[in-house]
Amino acid sequence: MTTPPDSPDALRAVLFDSGGVLVRPIGGRWNPRADFERTVLGHAPSITPAQFTAAIGAGDEFFATEVSTPDYDDYHRLMLRHLGVEPTSHLLAELRRDVAPSVFLETYSDVEDTLEALSRRGVRMAVVSDAWPDLPELHGGLGIGRFFEAYAISAVLGCDKPDPRMYHHASTALGLAPEQCLFVDDDPELVAAAIRLGYAGRALCRDATETDVPRIASLTELLQFF
Q1: What's residue 132's pLDDT?
Q2: CATH 1.10.940.10: does it fit domain 13-25+103-225?
Q3: 3-state SS string over the chain?
Q4: pLDDT for 125-137, tens place per residue?
Q5: To pair with 176 at 20 to 30 A between CA atoms, which of 16, 29, 151, 216?
Q6: Average pLDDT over the chain, rounded to an integer
Q7: What is the mean pLDDT of residues 210-215?
């Protein structure tokens, strides 16, 4: 008899989305980074909050029209031009300079304890995220990078979820079949796509949102599968 995909006997790994599952932005905004206004004001101190709001809105539209994760410099150039600020190489470098991840990101309260418990149980872990290439370094700065053996990152692979390549890159890197991996994302549609590809899946709905796909309300619920 075939072992069901959600059976503890079948599962060997968890593939995590990052934003909304593992980490969230301090202040609630993913892009641009929380220090964007402060950095720009250092070069153009007369920019008003209303101007920043309009420029960030233009940046959001830019993201919405891109088929894959855009280049940071292109994104910043667009917003700077909306602000009437010259996108000099110096300013662009400032906007993408390395800062401690704790300046703009934090982990959810259930993340580290769950990852520790999964690790103690020998569960393999990877990340599947629509993100920029520096995601492993960001996770490392937040103290969780050590748990993940592999990353499938849209800006590296040139595709976004639900492209099958995103999911398959992670499971292949772990040397596991889809049915041996449980995919977790805060977007139920992306979980549904993983399930259609043969992965087990759970939508993480911390706010108790109803969904047609199997869901969990906290990462700690993953421990029941291992």
Answers
A1: 87
A2: no
A3: CCCCCCCCCCCCEEEECCECCCEEECCCCCCCCCCHHHHHHCCCCCCCHHHHHHHHHHHHHHHHHCCCCCCHHHHHHHHHHHHCCCCCHHHHHHHCCCCCHHHCEEECCCHHHHHHHHHHCCCEEEEEECCCCCHHHHHHHCCCHHHCCEEEEHHHHCCCCCCHHHHHHHHHHCCCCHHHEEEEECCHHHHHHHHHCCCEEEEECCCCCCCCCCEECCHHHHHHHC
A4: 999 999 989 999 9
A5: 216
A6: 92
A7: 90
